[in-house]
Amino acid sequence: MKTMKKERLSEMAAKEIKAYMKERHLKEGDKLPPVSELMETLGIGRSTLREALQLLESRGALQVLNGKGTFVKDIKPFHIQTSIEIDNKKDFLLEALEVRKALEGKAVDLAVVHASDTEVNRMQTHLNRYVEALKNNEREKANAADADFHQTIYQATKNELLKSIIDSVWDSFYEFWNEPFGVEDIFDTSYPYHETLLQAIKERDSEKAAAAFQQIMESVRSSIENI
Amino acid sequence: MKTMKKERLSEMAAKEIKAYMKERHLKEGDKLPPVSELMETLGIGRSTLREALQLLESRGALQVLNGKGTFVKDIKPFHIQTSIEIDNKKDFLLEALEVRKALEGKAVDLAVVHASDTEVNRMQTHLNRYVEALKNNEREKANAADADFHQTIYQATKNELLKSIIDSVWDSFYEFWNEPFGVEDIFDTSYPYHETLLQAIKERDSEKAAAAFQQIMESVRSSIENI
DNA sequence: TCTAGCCTTTCATACAGCATGATAGTATGA
DNA sequence: TCATACTATCATGCTGTATGAAAGGCTAGA
Question: Domain coordinates of chain B in residue numbers?
């Protein structure tokens, strides 16, 4: 005899809901039926259903908003939860920097190999936006463009796990980094290497890319040191 | 006025429970008070409490067993969830391998610099256990010793964030890897490089260490390819 | 003396009903 | 015209009740 059912009802319901989403090809932002309805169609009680929904929410697959409804958020294969407690900001940032070096260095390496032409073009676009914003002294825009630039690189690795981990390390990194530097500094110390990096990716030159990336990280390091 | 409470009650409760665990220095395997009791001490309803517990469970911090109680499982700051079934095991393992190369490569690099004498000795001990187990054809013991060996290296980096990320990547890696190879293969292809790696750490030779580590990863790669 | 069967205790699991609160759209009235 | 009040829709949260799983203890029959 096979192992009998032992799984919790809420987990079964979660799978059911996921199957439902897949079946109806629900995309990000789409709305799920209200709880009362799901309750009936799945034939389970409300608290059980809520547990199932919460399970999916904690995995980042759903987002449930009070008074509005339940919405599809994400269908990524990985979800990373962090609960990092830090006592020393600077130490944490330095630790995180080492991790970023490893992870993003690998990403650059993979991007050199796997980036498609479209992706390279997209990087160029973001980099142009970046330099434009720096020239106009628009800090917010510059940061956004920079993030997009890096995102595109990580996308180009074609490695979902790597990308997910980098994303969450970024999140915790920037949570504790209130960018202590002025635009001019970035323009001088960091921007030129971005340009070199992109060039290297275009030329599929992994050594050049690695060197440029190390320079970027070095400028971040000195920013941290000067906190 | 400050931002009023917007957080969900269940999340607040989850934090409260976590604080409770920390406060009482609960270790892995310890038992939490039963729901009925927690319900009262936290002053919340049962369904809310259940949601809080489930939240912690989905993070891997707790394990709740029907008819027995709620138990502390783990207090890791970094947790990777693989949301659905991975459709292609091999692809996932290859992706994870790239991440491991980046992360653990960095760890080896840091360990060469920061490992204390005690840590180096500990590595040696674990490695001895490892080879012993291999000789006696004891698969289980060999794996445990191997894990301990690597753990000690990551410990020696003195980088908590790096260590916790590596830990969770390991967890998801081994969840999908049912080690398809025999002990003899390991003895030939993988073990010698472990010895070289340790030598390199002892000699504080980062290049040699990096090379040995790459060899180990290479042997893992070919194991994966042959699945 | 041993042990299978039954009870009890301790817990989690699940359901149903009810009250509250958030959000958004719509109607009302000065 | 525009703010205010009403209302529908949905999630949030609490409680009473009952079901079910695990473990330990008790008792009767071999």
Answer: 9-72, 89-225
Superfamily of the domain at B89-225? GntR ligand-binding domain-like (1.20.120.530)
Section A14-23 average pLDDT: 87
pLDDT in tens, A111-131: 999 999 999 999 999 999 999
Whether A147 CB is under 7 Å from strand D: no
pLDDT in tens, B151-192: 999 999 999 999 999 999 998 888 887 665 555 566 667 889
CATH class of B9-72: mainly alpha
Summarize the confidence of residues A138-165 as an average pLDDT.
92
Flag whether residue B98 sits within 8 Å of chain A, measured between CB atoms.
Answer: yes
* Residues 63-92/A with CB < 7 A to strand C: 65-68
Out of B10, B95, B160, name the one closest to residue A162 (CB): B95
C-beta of residue B103 within 8 angstroms of C-beta of residue B165: yes
Query: In Å, what is the separation between the CA of A65 and the C1' of C19?
Result: 19
Q: Report the relative pairing of strands B31-32 and B78-82 from DSSP bridges.
A: unpaired
Q: What is the mean pLDDT of residues B49-74?
A: 87
